[in-house]
Every structure is written in structure tokens, then in C-alpha cells.
Amino acid sequence: MRAETQYEDFIGTVAADFNADDSFVEFCRAVDIDLNRYKPVGFRFHCSYGKFDTAIHCQDLHEAKPYLVELKFKCEPIEVFFHLFRALQVVAYDRTCGEYTELPIEKSFVLE
């Protein structure tokens, strides 16, 4: 699965490190995911006009072949979800500027 929006003005990648104090499986248990039936394999969060939506992607172990389901859950305030990560980075580029996606950033400046 890849991230999608209606117009995809920006596209990119994401990388995340889970908080060392927690585990992804323990978080899934805390939001009442049946770990005997579902194997957590990923997550999704979506924000549109200030509305935030979160979900865990799981393999349904009751299916004979690999079968993914999305289990949505409430996570308020939003900081609760982001606290799960030691680091979370999203990098996105204008879809018309694909030639820049593999170039390294040579310098970083702070705008004041």
C-alpha cells in the first residue's frame, strides 16, 4: 500500500522509529486489537482540514492467504499517537520535481 491523496500535489517517503519505552504490539493490545486474530504490520494516519484519522494495518490470521485489513481507532489528543515514535520523518516533494528526490541536502538554514 502507498500513501494517496486526491491530487497528490506532493509525494514522498516516511521513516519511523518506535519509542523504546513501548512496543507496537503492546500499543495494539492497548487499543483492543485481537492479537490472536490480527498480526499488526503497519499503521496509517491521515489529516485533512484539521481532522485526524488513525489506523493499524494487520494481517488477518483467520484467512488462508495473506489478507490485510485496516483497523481504525480513536487517538485523541493527537500527541498521544505521535508520542509512540522516538522519531518520525515525512519527506515530500512537489510531484513535478521528481529529479530532486534522490539529491542530498547540501546545507540547512534556519529562517528567523
Automatic annotation (TrEMBL):
Name recorded for this polypeptide: Uncharacterized protein
Source organism superkingdom: Bacteria
